[in-house]
Amino acid sequence: MLLASGVPSCPSIVWTGPKFAAGAGGWSPLVSDRYQWLEVDLGERTKITAVATQGRYGSSDWLTSYLLMFSDTGHNWKQYRQEDSIGSFPGNSNADSVVQNKLQQPAFARFLRLIPLDWNPNGRIGLRLETYGCPYTSEVVSFDGGSSGLAFRLSPVPRKTSREVVSLKFKALRNSGTLLQAEGRDGLSLSLELERGKLFLLLRRGMTQLTTSHTKWSGTSSSESRRLASLGSLLDDQHWHHVVLEQKNAHLNLTVDKHTEKVQIAADLDSQKPIVSKRNFHGCLENLLHNGVNLIELAKNNDHQVTGNVTFSCAEPVSVAVTFTGPQSFLQLPGATASSSGGVSLGFQFRTWNKAGLLLTFDLPQQGGVVWLYLSEARLRLQIHKGRIFILILSNLVPGSALNDGQWHSVDVTSRRSRLMISVDKEEGGVAHANPPFPVTAGGQLFFGGCPAEDHSQDCENPFDVFQGCMRLLAVDNQLVDLITVQQRLLGNYSQLQIDMCGIIDRCSPSRCEHGGRCSQSWTVFHCNCSDSGYSGATCHSAVYEQSCEAYKHNGNTSGHFYIDVDGSGPIKPQLVYCNMTEENTWMVMQHNNTELTRLKPSAGVKQHSVHFQYSAQEEQLSAAISQSEHCEQELSYHCRKSRLLNTLEGSPFSWWRGGPGSGRIQTYWGGAHPGSQQCSCGLQGDCVDPQHYCNCDADRMEWTEDSGLLTHKESLPVRSLVLGDIQRPGSEAAYRVGPLRCHGDKNFWNAAFFDKETSYLHFPTFHGELSADISFLFKTTASSGVFLENLGIKDFIRIELSSSTQVLFSFDVGNGPLEVLVESRDPLNDNRWHRVRAERNIKEASLRLDDLPVATQEAPTDGHFHLQLNSQLFIGGTASRQKGFRGCIRSLQLNGVTLDLEERAKITPGVQPGCPGHCSSYGSLCQNQGRCVERTNGFHCDCSLSAYTGVFCQTEVSVSFKPGSSVSYTFKEPYELSRNSSALPSSIYSDMTLRGENVSLSFRTNQSPALLLYVSSYYREHLALLINKNGEQDARLIVLPFFNPLHDKQFLDVLGSCHSFCSLWIHISLHYKVYGNSTTMTRRKQISNICPVQQSKDIMLASLGFAGCLSVVQFNTISPLKAALLHPDTSPVVISGPLVQSNCGSAGSANPYAEENTHHLSDQSGSVGSGQPLVNAIRTDSALIGGVIAVAIFVIVTALAITARFLYRRKETYRNQEAKEVKQEDSQDFSFNNQAGSQNISTENPKEFFI
């Protein structure tokens, strides 16, 4: 006998001693298998709170795990589950110790059944059992679904409290019906409707009449209805369910069993399609209480407030169900007896979540055929085979809803005289007829749900999936099958069945899918469809979008519209904002419905003008975005003409605005001033037009003036509404503008701490992530291992660590044993660069993601513990269980969307420093095109002063659309000025003058030929020119004249190839040169010697001599003439001639000298010629030919540059190169260049076309 100690909160104890089946000292069945059970009759319904077990006395017989079942009638058993999932209870480890299991929720039942699952492998099933609980009394009433019902006329005396509570328990014998309807004031009423096994709370407006008769109890209503809440599922399982409805003013709480939904009654009733049950309730109610008064007891005592016709007992029909649990489940029954009709009559009901599965199969021995009745795509289908040939196929027998909805569906198969009829849910009209060529009889064996294993098969073959679900009311020849006899092995055969119970579970009620994810399920698992939710993962828990524009920027994005999820996996939905990344700060812009300047004029009878602003973001989104940002601002401006604004400090203001959370608080200051000052910006600065007032508009002048400024006090943002008061006087005019809300800086993104010792750590309160938890952070380190974070419980724990220099390990235990998820990187993780870790654990799986590597996952047990129970402090950077902590930086640590303030905690913790510098090592690669990464306290920025590009990442091309007559000239400082002022030269304008070579890059688009793209001259009479020359009727060629001194040498570099669209070129003039192209092939034809690098160039001219087209990203060494002309025209030594139009005519294929290069050394060039007519390509031995070509080219330049033409003409000489004597002479078209208008073709570039 067990001692009754540690009894959970009951005034009395119910003890049940062991029942002996065999042996002494406890219960031990003759056969030890999983089909045994011990059943206990407690004599009456009892509140059971705990169960204790002990092994059989003096033996090796004990249980190691078991199931508990409860029932009121000894039939229709219900399995008890802990945490909605755990079905098994731990047993004993020896025969003497007592193991007590307390029930998380008490069970109310008369009968208890214990089913052994596992036992000592060296012994048998052995058990001594004791239950703990207390007596349970209740008042019950039964409704037949037709003529029975109750009406309670409560006293109209108003109660002192506004709180109303109705509680009850119900047991439904039908899946639809009206449980309760309560009429209130103003024609409003609440009703509880059971529909398809779910409970709905409806709010109705209108009169409802209750009528009674000897044969019928009904309610008629023409009222509007609105669904307030929906809870529960499978509530027609013929078990008791507890309902509590609590109302306090306009707030309602509906609780069904353990789940609660909170709703609020709106002032207006939206028109909705009503969900009204067409049936009265069929079942039983227990302990119907209204504010503590048992109404059933009043009815039982014939109280005058109660009318109706009911039975004060709960009569339950005996309906034995069977559950097919797994892939080896089947039920074998004998077929129909011989009949004169030679037909078959079979019937059953089933319920399942699976779309496919075999329901029934039997042989046709006389015809040598087989019949299969099965589910496919949630539709009922029937196949008849004869000799493996299809004889008859009936499919899609049900035109209505799918049959895997978890509801009971009836199936009847009838065959008489070669006529086959199959009906599904007769009341809904699903019937199909067929005429097979032979009679269909079932005289052999019937197999339901599946077939036996092959070695035990008795003429049963199943080419389909097995059935997982419940069946009941099995009938053969219109006779119900006694499944209790089957359970006792006296009829038929079965395997892996649960008889006398339906073990269906609705895994989607309540839904484990978060953030609006749609839940679907099969018999064993559920699935979340996260599409269009903005979240991902097995339960739609983790946010898809970043939390700020700052985060998008550091992913390499540029300006644009982005979805922002300010709280990550928290409850706030993503919002669409505009991220402006063109400035040093990254701005998040949130628009409202009126950001334009709006003009006002006096209107008759209108004394004030009021305007409300509706933002694109919701209230919680705005509040979270403002709180998370480092700085927010909003422009507020008022343009006035004889319209006062705030008047004086002593008087009440004419105008005001509301700002802040909710509807906002009244604010009487204006943009640029301080909160509460009742001033404008000019009053704060002391420069108002009238010194006696603090706003320009308060001067009340006839001239137009304005008061404008930025609102920067975050507690007063955003602006919700605006009231303008002085607009009714004759002659008054005004205009206002409230700009969009702009915020920059992400306090969470850069929140970091540096752990300089392995023994240092930060601690925070216990992490609460019972059902789902996500953890994300960034780290950088030089150490090879260390624990990032750890939180412990009594048995449970959660930990993330750097297990090696290439591995991150996520481990936890929720009671099922430790589970680990590992991600391994090819590259070392201790490279002192930022790496991102994202870990998630939910009831379905655990996942771990490292940087952009594939996510690693581990599935959780289907029927296991899933509540993570922690109780110690959360350790960051260290651990309470291990010696070695983390050494390095941790940044942006978020747990379930909440950022931990590492910096504030680090300020008061020894061994930990707030912040973590050194971001360029990770983000420096975002700076493109020679952009230089510059460190900032929180982040970095790209210095584009040495690049021909601009933009936040130096990625935006600087392009100009040149018109005829437009040019840009850039002049260097004189040599002596350069040396004298070299220490003060800004790098964005002047280059290093000690050059050993020249680098020229540009991109262009033009339809003009010939044309001069670029011309450079130096103080040492050296020149460089880029020219386009015609080549036949269609093609154009690019000619490069490298630096040459007309006194000594003249050199031509021909770049072959046609250029029909945008072309890119990069040339290095030194020992070798390099060429790039995206639309043309550019090759060097012949060696050029004696090339002298330029020394201190004098000027650069772009697009001179009539060029029309587009030039982009022009760079000469470190000088960017176009960028200087467009962005710094006042501080740069540039001269602009003609119209200069900035354009987006650039191309994605612009010159990039730091991309993969085609390098051609001067010593390895051959003299081969490509297709097409060659331009000037080699140095001729024929001095006359060489002289003619150079003479024409120099003549063109002379005509364009009058200041050098005479000098170049007088010094012109023929250049001979002895190393080129062996080169074969080739004909060449003379280069002809003029500036005539007839030769100019304006580029047809599209100004809207954008190239990156």
TrEMBL record:
The chain crosses the membrane at residues 1184-1209. It comes from the Eukaryota. Residues 1230-1245 have a biased composition (Polar residues). It is found in: Membrane. It holds the Pfam family F5_F8_type_C. Residues 1-134 form the F5/8 type C domain. Residues 139-314, 320-502, 751-916 form the Laminin G domain. Residues 1220-1252 are annotated as: Disordered. Residues 540-592 form the Fibrinogen C-terminal domain. Residues 504-541, 917-955 form the EGF-like domain. Keywords: Disulfide bond, EGF-like domain, Membrane, Repeat, Signal, Transmembrane, Transmembrane helix. GO terms for cellular component: membrane. Disulfide bonds join 889-916. Belongs to the neurexin family. This is Contactin associated protein like 3. It comes from Amphiprion percula (Orange clownfish).
